[in-house]
Amino acid sequence: MNNQKFGAAIIGYGGMGSWHARQLKTMDELTLCGVYDILPERNKAAEAAGIHAYASREELLSDPAVKLVTVAIPNDLHREVCIDCMKHGKNVICEKPVCLNHEELQDMIDASKEYGVIFTVHQNRRWDEDYLTIKKIYDEGTLGRVFNIESRVHGSRGIPGDWRNQKEHGGGMVLDWGVHLLDQIMMMIDKPLLSVYAQLSNVTNEAVDDGFKTILAFADDLSVQVEVGTSNFINLPRWYMQGENGTALIEDWSLNGKIVMVSDWENRDAVPVVTAAGLTKTMAPRTDETIDTFPLPEVHSDVRDFYRNVIKACNGEEEQLIRHDQVMRVMKLMEAIFRSAETQQVVTDIF
Predict the structure, then answer these.
(1) 3-state class (DSSP) for residue 313
(2) Are 239 and 297 in contact (CB under 8 A)?
């Protein structure tokens, strides 16, 4: 085991860049050498937080102490800056989405091979505990055969007002939040993806999507709905999973939710429900003696394990967790979502 601390630096000291800096300063395995941002006021903000600010990108990349660079800048600049870092012999973590299309991603993968460095993407929401909880329920077969999964995030403030609402910079919710939710689904489900159907919304912004809904049809009759909304004043559940033997619900990131399972398959009788215009027995709820309610399983994580894995990958001790083929798969899936929304048709040529 190589116990030498890794020198790390950050290009871009905005919202995510400053988040990375705070994380790195809590880690024993890394030394934060400094940051660089093209905006002087952001460099001053870094220095005010006790972080060295390089005078230029060239100075940062010329520092032999820097072994690892995290790139946290607008999406359209990722390809150019990441390849420049790799050309200087630096291992690179790129913020998501890694770039604007799969051709740019291939250029970045090729550069990592040419220069013999690690290149990976900060898919940090693989460590979200709501995701890990629903994945545990799925992996352990708690609900029996799962036939429907719904994953969504909702907000009510519209699309952000910075570069994220501009198409030329890679804005929009598919690239901003969709990349996370789609990555989670593709990591959880080990089945062929057969088709994609998607709709984009433009409630608050015409230039880019401020939300989307997509239906992913997997083999074995598994349907997955992924949804992002920014004009929702009442949020729907973060996760909703249906299996033959029960249903799991996760309301929010605070892990409010439950699992409801059938306890008595033989007792199917129910008291009819009276509605305003009639009655229904089909939609009447099961009686209490035929179901059991369970709390969600506890799953804990440490997002800094992402960086720990990158260090070990750089030292040749582990395979990087966020692999090139996984990132490429999600990029092509997002492209299929855009094609489906544009043509208003189901897309089957995904990968």
Answers:
(1) helix
(2) no
* Helix H or strand E encompassing 188: helix 179-188
- State pTM to two decimals: 0.95
In the 8-state DSSP scheme, what is residue 21? H
Cβ atoms < 10 Å from Cβ of 113: 11
- Enclosing H/E stretch for 217: strand 211-218
Please provide the DSSP assignment of 48-117 as one string.
HTT--B-SSHHHHHH-TT--EEEE-S-GGGHHHHHHHHHHTT-EEEEPSS--SSHHHHHHHHHHHHHHT-
Q: Rounded to a whole number, what is the distance in angstroms from the first to the last CA of the chain?
A: 38
Residue with tokens 């913020």: 95
Coil, strand or helix at 238: coil
pLDDT digits (tens, 9 = 90+) for 133-152: 999 999 999 999 999 999 99
Under DSSP, is residue 139 helix (H, G, I), strand (E, B) or coil? helix
DSSP-assigned letters across all residues of 300-312: ---TTHHHHHHHH
Whether the predicted pLDDT of 269 surpasses 90: no
